């Protein structure tokens, strides 16, 4: 839910130069993302100190959502910044440097930014108009198979479809009723579930490859489990969702057949993640040449998915690994990473204010404007109040993106949390 981040999403703006062509994002190691441009002016209401071009709306939405989840009332200017990013059509782009300019056909709006903003604004309350417009736009760009791609007209992928399902749930709509013709989002996800008798059986693929074959991907699987459960980023086991049927299974077998329920697909995906995490307690990077490197962001996503599926026992080991090993990563990656960890703690009933000895809530709050109020009656210092030395360290850090889009990438290879590199046209 890039999704990227290792938890910020890298929008597919570079793909626009390809016209109707396709490109796929490639995973980056946690410590290999671009740093902020020295001349980049960071808006005062925005969380983080790195270049927001590719993840502004994503990281802001996750930060606000995480704060709301732990009882923190975000700064008004932070909420206003997010609201101001919305286009008249209801859609959001990854980032608009001049929010006063009217969106047009060249504005690179996308489903992921729009859906994550819906989840945040719906949680905060008081934004029914903005949420309603965004949901109507999402309905209008649904694909014939019932799913969504990263950009309007792009091929459906598990990550984008799942984050949009979360948006419908947040808005109070039933995802299963959002159909394009006869196909619902749950059917689109089922079509991306790897059959039990194939390599990686039970997992979700990001998209089919050029031959129509499905390859297991842990990141897409974490997203697919949440989507199939009918849940958004803020999730716990046993909490509603049409896709929840059948997820109480404890049997360690993949459920086969051509008529999988959403719950069956979620069960299979959770089982795949459990096995993938069993040895080391973390997922590894899918970047060529970095396969032995831990992927903190994907591991946090997997914990959320397992917690949502009611598989708390399977989440114990990766959660403990994150508590011990995610500090340096989160400090470098910034607000979206802290938000991911808070949501992982929430999904498993863990205290985010004592996460391996760290207070994730204060650490997140310190990356943006001072919050209005907190359930623990304290607010963290604003990023604007940090010492010049701390600011310098922040400016040298990276925003932890998992994915970068390039014109030379091969369609269908890369996958990432909630991002598809395919695009056919941009809409305002």
UniProtKB/TrEMBL annotation:
Residues 1-29 form the signal peptide. The keyword Transit peptide does not apply. The chain crosses the membrane at residues 400-419. Residues 237-246 have a biased composition (Gly residues). InterPro entries: Terpenoid_cyclase/PrenylTrfase. Residues 237-260, 366-392 are annotated as: Disordered. Residues 372-381 have a biased composition (Polar residues). Keywords: Membrane, Signal, Transmembrane, Transmembrane helix. This is Terpene cyclase/mutase family protein. It comes from Streptomyces spongiae. The lineage of its organism: Bacteria, Bacillati, Actinomycetota, Actinomycetes, Kitasatosporales.
């Amino acid at each position: 839910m890039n999704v990227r981040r290792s938890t910020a999403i890298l929008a597919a703006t570079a793909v626009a130069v390809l016209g109707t062509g396709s490109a796929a994002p490639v995973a980056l190691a946690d410590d290999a993302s671009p740093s902020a441009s020295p001349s980049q002016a960071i808006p005062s209401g925005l969380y983080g100190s790195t270049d927001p071009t590719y993840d502004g709306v994503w990281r802001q939405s996750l930060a606000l959502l995480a704060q709301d989840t732990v009882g923190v009332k975000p700064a008004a200017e932070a909420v206003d910044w997010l609201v101001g990013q919305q286009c008249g059509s209801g859609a959001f782009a990854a980032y608009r440097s001049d929010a006063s300019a009217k969106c047009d056909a060249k504005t690179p709006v996308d489903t992921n930014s729009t859906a994550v903003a819906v989840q945040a604004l719906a949680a905060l309350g008081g934004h029914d108009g903005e949420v309603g417009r965004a949901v109507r736009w999402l309905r209008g760009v649904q694909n014939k198979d019932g799913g969504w791609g990263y950009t309007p007209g792009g091929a459906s992928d598990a990550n984008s479809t799942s984050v949009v399902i979360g948006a419908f749930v947040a808005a109070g709509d039933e995802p299963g009723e959002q159909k394009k013709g006869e196909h619902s989002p749950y059917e689109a996800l089922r079509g991306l579930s790897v059959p039990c008798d194939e390599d990686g059986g039970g997992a979700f693929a990001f998209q089919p490859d050029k031959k129509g074959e499905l390859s297991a991907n842990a990141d897409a699987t974490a997203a697919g489990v949440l989507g199939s459960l009918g849940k958004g980023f803020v999730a716990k086991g046993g909490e509603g969702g049409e896709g929840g049927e059948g997820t109480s299974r404890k049997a360690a077998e993949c459920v086969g057949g051509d008529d999988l329920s959403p719950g069956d697909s979620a069960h299979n995906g959770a089982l795949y993640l459990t096995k993938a995490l069993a040895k080391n307690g973390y997922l590894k990077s899918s970047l060529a040449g970095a396969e032995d490197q831990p992927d903190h962001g994907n591991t946090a996503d997997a914990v959320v998915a397992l917690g949502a599926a009611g598989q708390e026992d399977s989440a114990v080991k990766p959660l403990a690994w994150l508590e011990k090993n995610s500090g340096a990563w989160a400090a470098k990656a910034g607000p979206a990473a802290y938000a991911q960890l808070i949501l992982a703690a929430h999904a498993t009933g863990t205290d985010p204010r004592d996460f391996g000895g760290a207070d994730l809530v204060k650490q997140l709050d310190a990356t943006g404007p001072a919050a209005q109020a907190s359930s623990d009656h304290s607010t963290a210092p604003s990023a604007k109040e940090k010492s010049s030395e701390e600011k310098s360290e922040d400016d040298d850090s990276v925003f932890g993106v998992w994915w970068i889009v390039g014109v030379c990438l091969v369609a269908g290879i890369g996958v990432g949390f909630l991002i598809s590199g395919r695009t056919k046209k941009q809409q305002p």
